[in-house]
Amino acid sequence: MVDLRAKKMDPKIAHTLTYMTRVLIEAFAATNMQKELESLRQQLQTKTEKP
Predict the structure, then answer these.
(1) From 16's CA, which of 26, 32, 44, 48 has a CA 20 to 30 Å away?
(2) What percentage of the chain has pLDDT greater than the value 70?
(3) For the chain, which residues make up each domain, given as ranges?
(4) How far is the C-alpha of 16 from the C-alpha of 30, rounded, in Å?
(5) Which pTM value belongs to this model?
(6) What's the 3-state SS for the chain?
(7) Is the Cβ–Cβ distance between 4 and 14 less than 8 Å?
């Protein structure tokens, strides 16, 4: 952000980097949610298998 304000970085590059970072963060969040969902499914399956 400092480089952008100091006009050391092209605004198009800054925009592209921001977009790519957002997509990467969303991908990490989706992966984490998938892992949590799988863990919950396993816990539920373990509980339902017990008599």
Answers:
(1) 32
(2) 92
(3) 2-49
(4) 21
(5) 0.60
(6) CHHHHCCCCCHHHHHHHHHHHHHHHHHHHHHHHHHHHHHHHHHHHHHHHCC
(7) yes
Question: Given CA atoms 27, 25, 19, 16 in this order, what sign does their dihedral have?
Answer: negative
| Residue pair 11/4 in contact by the 8 Å Cβ criterion | yes
Amino acid 20 reads M
More confident site: 1 or 35 = 35
CA distances from 31 to 7, 17, 22, 27, 39 (A): 36, 21, 14, 6, 12
Give the model's confidence band at 51: pLDDT under 50 very low, under 70 low, under 90 confident, else very high.
Answer: low
